[in-house]
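Lecture 7 notes: from sequence to structure.
We start with the chain below.
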Amino acid sequence: MKKKITAAAFGVALVAAAWTLTAGASRADAPAWNPHAAASYLDQRADWWTTWPGAARDHETFCVSCHTAAPYAVARPALRRVLGENAPSTAEAKLAANVLKRVRMWREVEPFYPDQTRGVPKTSESRGTESILNALVLSSRDAAAGALSDDARQAFDNMWALQMKTGDQTGAWTWLNFHYEPWEAERSPYYGATLAAVAIGMAPGHYAATGDIQDRLKALRAYLQKGADSQHLFNRINLLWASTLLPDLLSAEQQRSIIDAVRRAQQDDGGWTMSRFADWKRIDNT
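Predicted structure tokens for the same chain:
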């Protein structure tokens, strides 16, 4: 059930974001799409997540999941613009308050999955994952306001402090691995690095041009470029997204290659299935 719910939420989030990019184009031949229903669905799923006992964490906070909460945080503001809403929804505000609390209490709150209860190296995986997701959520929020907040800067500082400096993962971050493709599995550090690039590129106030992050940003670009052509489609789609926000990640030819791959993965009914984006099996091994 969890896989079905999160995949559906992720799909609606992508559709919401894509719809805003094409809103100005002719839609005479497109099927009717209801942004109000999409917003309602996303709000309901996000609100459910914030109250689900399985998501509860230290200091009365909840886990900001890369498969449910993070896509919601990025997509929901796009729908707000389409719907003419003047303020974040209740679920958006609740998610932002949770992230702000954990950023401000970064040295006090326990990681999402401590080593003491989940085994090594879950603490480092949790910290690396959360640092990126916090930066992504706050950068997305601040992009709408047009100015980067002190809290978002702190989130980025937390993120950069955990960037890997040696080995194959140089330029990336440790990432949660529960063998849960494509969000939390062996190849997911690459996914996390694409989200870090999205957060940086999305940040207002020319944050990506900040002088003291250029060496770190160079390492991130090198990591993403090194693995660009060998990733499964899910990671490549996220890399494509990042490349639209952060210059010099991909060439035009590489971008076109990913777009063509997405089109080839489209099903006869017009949609896509997550099993075409990455290699994963259900819990019953099918």
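Points to note: DSSP finds eleven helices and two strands in the chain. Confidence is low (pLDDT under 50) at residues 1-13, 15-26.
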